Amino acid sequence: MATASTVSEDLQPLKRSSSFELLPPDFSELRVVLLGNSWAQRSSLGNSILGETVFNTKKESDQCLRFSGQFKRKEIVLINTPDLLHPNIPQWKLSQDVKDCVRLSDPGPHVFLLLPTA
């Protein structure tokens, strides 16, 4: 005859996992492009990731900014963009900003991090 077990006996506590440790060991750096509608939000997140204030959250920049630092013993590069998602940005300005972001993330970004609107 089969024995019944309770749910609490079968369940193990959930562990928090991170894919950051799964980066190949030969990755020299992780390049992240920050996108979203709020300069302050993107800058605050960038500062939190890097653990220091490198992006000015009060004064919005009209160009892409690149800062790098250490995150869990790995090199991380953050590229903070001007408001690329604004519907009224002129086409020439959008093209220039995208080219700048591509240049700053050379040889290319690994992650586009899209922040939700406030």
Automatic annotation (TrEMBL):
* Domain AIG1-type G: from-to ranges: 30-114
Record the organism: Pogonophryne albipinna
User: What's in the keyword line of the UniProt record?
Assistant: GTP-binding, Nucleotide-binding
User: Does the keyword GTP-binding belong to this entry?
Assistant: yes
Give the top-rank taxon of the lineage listed in the UniProt record for this protein.
Eukaryota
Gene3D superfamilies, per database record:
P-loop containing nucleotide triphosphate hydrolases
Example GO molecular function: GTP binding
Highest classification ranks of the organism = Eukaryota, Metazoa, Chordata, Craniata, Vertebrata
The name on file for this protein is AIG1-type G domain-containing protein
Coiled-coil features, chain-numbered ranges: none
The UniProt entry, under Pfam families, shows: AIG1 (PF04548)
